[in-house]
Amino acid sequence: MPPKRKKEEEKKKEEKKKKPKTNDIKKGEEEIFTCVQMSLQKLMPRGRMKHLPKIEELVKRMHVIHTHASLLFNAYLRRLLEGADLKFPDVTMNGLSEFYYAVTKGKRKRKKENQDIKSVFEKEMMPFMKDQMESREGIDGNLIREKAGEMATAFKNNLQTHYWKRFYKILTIECDGDKKKAQRIFNEIQSGKTEHCFFLKKKKDNLEELFYLTAKIQKELKKKEKKLCAVIPLTTSNVPGCIALDTTSLYMWFYKECAANGWKKDALKENRNEIWNKFFKIKKKKNFNFHFRLVTNGVKCSIMYSRVQVKQEVPEKTEEEIRQEVIRERRIPVGVDPGKHNILYMVSKEGGKRKELRYSNVQRRFEGFGKTAQKLLEKRKKKNPQIIQIEKELSNYNSKDISVDVFKKYLKKKLEHLKELFDFYSHLWFRKQRWERVKSIQSSEDRFFNQIEKTFGKKEKILLCYGLWNRKQQIKGK
Length: 478
Description:
Elements: H1 3-18, E1 29-39, H2 52-81, H3 93-102, E2 104-105, H4 115-129, E3 134-135, H5 141-174, H6 179-191, H7 207-223, E4 243-246, H8 247-253, H9 255-260, H10 268-279, E5 289-296, E6 300-310, H11 319-329, E7 332-338, E8 342-350, E9 353-360, H12 361-367, H13 370-382, H14 385-395, H15 404-425, H16 428-456, E10 462-466
């Protein structure tokens, strides 16, 4: 770097340090967010439609990078379980972004690269890639960190929420399917009377320990030839997902258009209204401000709005206070029983008359066009028989197995046909079908809410009393 440029950068850093930090949110205040979903084309009328293909291209590229990073993350953790000299990854937004940088190529070399991740990529994935490495030119680091954050959340949730279910499953297998005996042993282990090799001793959720215990459970299930669980989440969908655009990522992707208007990267905060108005027509929302963030998959989009307000602490009401409030306001109690066949079953008794209303799973599927969407997908696949054949071949490989050799076979097959699958599923038709289905399900739920008011009365006059989902014996396979 030339000495003049070094001095300029040092001056900028010193100026940033001198500037006082101003926070919009003061003590006793909180920021509230709301989201509005709509078609992306509505935000890009007339002259702005020319930018739509470029956004679609960004969505596709980010999906390819995300799929490659997910495969590398799986391969890395399997190598770790085999006893390789590797560190447990930092499961955070910044920590997992290293996997995304490892599977991409750029003109400039990064100063700090994780050598462990890079070595696993070169050994496990590079031989099967066939020049499939995506370039990260024009892609902002915020986009990569957002996707890495999604992967970190999926990994944490998978371990923390499903660990106890898996542990209880092992106990029931050891007790030859006797659930009462398994429950008794489970209570004894929790109280500390007995010990078990798969039990998490620490009260705090330690991700590393949880991961190794879940992997042990997986090995035990494999020995006893039982159904395996997905220890490490893997991206299997070939339909491009959503990306989150902020002012910086928008500026980086549309650099030529922004530079032509004289907008500089150092002054994005001052010019962000003009930058967003150039590409989108954002509507104003009452009592809310645009948060300069948009989530899209090239078809639908979610616009984020926010506002700052004074914190309102609502005290929790006791059962007696609720009962007195119901008597005082003369509300009609309505019993609501959630279920699987009947999503909601509602019943009330007023003036000796019994009123019932149900919202079934079949009704939701019919009104949400679930079957028709499946038939249309099958028709489209029949026109491309090679896709059906590829998916059949991939179904013969096990992606849940912890063994490196087994996963390597799946990885090789997946990377062989990944380009063909992307070319087929990256078509806008698949994302449009998803968006249409979301809209039809929302309209189905809205119709049901109107039916509640017609059957039982307005929301101010009724009190919904929900069930506890406390049924122990559930439907098999649900």
